[in-house]
Structure formats: structure tokens, C-alpha cells
Amino acid sequence: MKKDKVSSAMKEMRGGLHQQKFADELNVSRESISKYENGRSKVPADISRELTKKYNQPQFAVTIAQQYTGTGPIWLDGPNVDLHRSSVKEKTLEELEEAIHKLRSTSLAKPLVNLTPYELQSVRDALEELVEAQTAMAHLVAVVCMETGISYTDVWAQHYRSLQSSGYVEV
Prior knowledge:
By secondary structure, this protein is an all-alpha fold. 67% of the residues lie in helices and 0% in strands.
């Protein structure tokens, strides 16, 4: 059975706090906390936002985003992962270089509906490299925030303000 990463991240975030105290802080029942932590119920979006805002825990933020959409970076926790900041930095640079190389060698000039099977495979390969780079970057931001105490949510809030002030997003 697949391990529920959200419930694991939530238990870790709760730490030594009793479920009842945790539930009181979130204005939910202790039974709800138990269901979330045992994977019997999904954490509702409003509770997810509250937890992310209150605890500022990057692992939970990455994990919950992936659970809700089924896309995006997934928190790496397998036996071959090394989340030391230096290792994550080196892996991120490696993935970025591979993605840039593949993207540069992929032509997107002609209408994509007219791509040959070979060209389409090249586009798929480039997208896979970009997704690998995205996962590495998400982990680098998360790990550095966790180790330095820099607020993960503030880093994203500043990014969103920058996008807005540059006219890339509307309020």
C-alpha cells in the first residue's frame, strides 16, 4: 500500500503536540486530526492553507500541493535521496544544466501539431528534464528555508508580489 505522505508530514509537523491541542488550534475535532494523520480523510484546502501559514513547513506545502493536483514536485523521501543542502544544490545545478541543454536542442519553431515523431520525442524529453529540474529546485528552496529559518511562505509571497508588480498576474 502506498504511504500517505500528507499524513506523515502532518504528524511530523504536529510534533509532540497532542492531537486535541493541535485540533483546538485549527478549530477542528480531534477525530478529524486523527483521520487526516491516518490517511482516512484528505486534509481540506482551508485546513491545508492554515497549516502552511501557521507552521511554515515546506515539506508539508510541497506534499499537499502534489496531493491536491496529482502534479508538481513530490517530496523526495526514498532510500537514495540526500537532502543535505550541498547535495541538493549540486543536484539542482545538474538538473538545470541538463534541462537547459535539452531545451536548447529542441526546436519549438514550427507548429507543434506538425512535429515529426522524432521531434515530438525531443519535446517530451525536454519536458521531462524540465520537470526534474523543477523538482530539484523545489527541494533546494525548501531545504534552505528549513535550515536557515527563512520563511518559505514569505519567499513565495514576495515572488507573487513581484509577479503582480511586473504585470504578470492580476489581483
